Structure formats: structure tokens, C-alpha cells
Write a sequence for this structure.
């Protein structure tokens, strides 16, 4: 599950709770462009350890996590900002995102048995009120699924943001903004 790549730890897909669907390594994202040369997930070691504990909890509940984005180089943050210069959805590069520090993840849940992603009410990277944490028009199923995701991650030190059900930041990692880019195998 973990591979070392200073200053971050790599999370890899495994049979024990992690599915990688790194969207910015594909065109299946809000930009419609490939922004990463390959889909890899890196996090600050403290964040990776907290997420590992959450993964174990999710497995007991019958879920895998699907990781859409993890550490993001500052150069990619600049490309996202150029496409959507709206701080509700993309942190201005001058400020730096928690993703740029290896301290944030974008994720969803998958049912372990069926391998289907849970209904969260909107797709990942949906920029609209329906993706907001306080949106009241969700189906009962989507509301329940978001609560499972949020309540479990909060237990392990992650904090959601108001506008994106999929985004969780981990406080206290003390990590600086990074421009580091990974290599592809």
C-alpha cells in the first residue's frame, strides 16, 4: 500500500481497500485534458497514515475508497485555476491548495462486494450547489452515503470543505507547498 518517495508516501491500489481512479491522468475531469503523465497518489506521511486508519474502518463497514486526486504539483494547480478561476472550487495558486502540500484527498466510496461506486448525489468535480455539504435536495441514499464518507474521515482528522463532498484536508501535517513532479514507471 505504501511506497516511499521523499517527501511524500505513495499509496497504491491494492485488494485491501484502495482503488485508484486518478482523474487528472485522464480526460475524465472538468478540464477535459490530461494533466498528469500517469495516475499516482502521493501524500504527506502523516496524512497517509491517517488515511490508512480510515481505510481499515471503511473496510469494516463494507467499503473501499476510490482516490480521485492526492498530492498535486503547483504547476497543475495553476492549470486548474486558469480553467476555473473560482476559489469556491479551485484554490488560487498564489495561496496554494492543501493538495499542493500532500495534505488533501479527493475520494469516494465503493461497495466491496459489487465494486460499484456509491451514489453521492453528483459526480466528482461537479461544480454546483448539489455538491455542497449542506445541499438539502439529495436522495436519501446519497445523503446516507455522504454521511458515511464524512463521519468516518472526520474521525481520523480529515476536514471537508463546504462546496465539494469529495474533498478532505488533513490539518497538522505542517507540509509546505510543493512543485515536485513524480516520474512514471
Amino acid at each position: 500500500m505504501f511506497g516511499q518517495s521523499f517527501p511524500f508516501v505513495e499509496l497504491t491500489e491494492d485488494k485491501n481497500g484502495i482503488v485508484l481512479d486518478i482523474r487528472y491522468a485522464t480526460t475524465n475531469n472538468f478540464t477535459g485534458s490530461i494533466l498528469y503523465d500517469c495516475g499516482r497518489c502521493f501524500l504527506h506521511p502523516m496524512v497517509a497514515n491517517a488515511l490508512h486508519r480510515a481505510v481499515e474502518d471503511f473496510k469494516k463497514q463494507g467499503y473501499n475508497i476510490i482516490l480521485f486526486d492526492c498530492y498535486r504539483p503547483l504547476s497543475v494547480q495553476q492549470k486548474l485555476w486558469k480553467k476555473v478561476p473560482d476559489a469556491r472550487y479551485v484554490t488560487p495558486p498564489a495561496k496554494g491548495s492543501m493538495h499542493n502540500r500532500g495534505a488533501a484527498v479527493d475520494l469516494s466510496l465503493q461497495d466491496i462486494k459489487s465494486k460499484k461506486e456509491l451514489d453521492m448525489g453528483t459526480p466528482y468535480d461537479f461544480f454546483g450547489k448539489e455538491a455542497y455539504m449542506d445541499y438539502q435536495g439529495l436522495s436519501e441514499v446519497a445523503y446516507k452515503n455522504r454521511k458515511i464518507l464524512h463521519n468516518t474521515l472526520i474521525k481520523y482528522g480529515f476536514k471537508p470543505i463546504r462546496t465539494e463532498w469529495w474533498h478532505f484536508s488533513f490539518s497538522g501535517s505542517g507540509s509546505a507547498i510543493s512543485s515536485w513532479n513524480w516520474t512514471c514507471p
Observations:
- The chain has a mean pLDDT of 93.
- Strands lie at 2-5, 8-11, 18-20, 41-43, 63-69, 104-111, 158-161, 164-170.
- The chain has one domain: 2-170.
